[in-house]
Design a protein that fits this description.
The protein is of the alpha+beta class. Helix content is 46%, strand content 12%.
């Protein structure tokens, strides 16, 4: 870990949610997940049709568990017993939320467009 990352990690002292983590840190998984996030766009892999919650995301075909933030977040799958660093968890969380916002804005634009088309057809 370089000096900048060490300084960034100090923020977690003031974030109690990050104090307790369910899984142990794994340096290899942390490195690989960062490479996956750099190389691929997230693809929402497992969306529950009943409540719309997203349980997993895929990066280049590699599935990552994204439920139970931040305690068991960003594990290779539901059954894995490893996790990335807190900085990587935070980075992935922000990436996923940004992707959700982008998709919602795209969908709302489509809904508005469809409403305009319906209105034009009915007039």
């Amino acid at each position: 870990m370089n000096m900048i990352d060490r300084i960034k990690s100090l923020q977690f002292i003031f974030k109690p949610n990050y104090w307790m983590m369910n899984e142990p840190f794994n340096k290899d998984w942390d490195h690989k997940l960062n490479l996956l996030m750099d190389k691929f766009e997230p693809v929402f892999a497992d969306v529950n049709p009943l409540d719309g919650l997203i349980h997993t995301v895929s990066f280049g075909g590699i599935v990552v568990w994204i439920e139970n933030y931040p305690y068991a977040y960003a594990t290779p799958d539901y059954y894995s017993r490893i996790r990335p660093s807190r900085l990587t968890i935070q980075r992935l969380y922000r990436m996923i939320n940004q992707e959700k916002v982008t998709r919602q804005s795209e969908n709302s634009g489509s809904i508005k467009l469809m409403a305009q088309i319906d209105k034009a057809l009915n007039d």
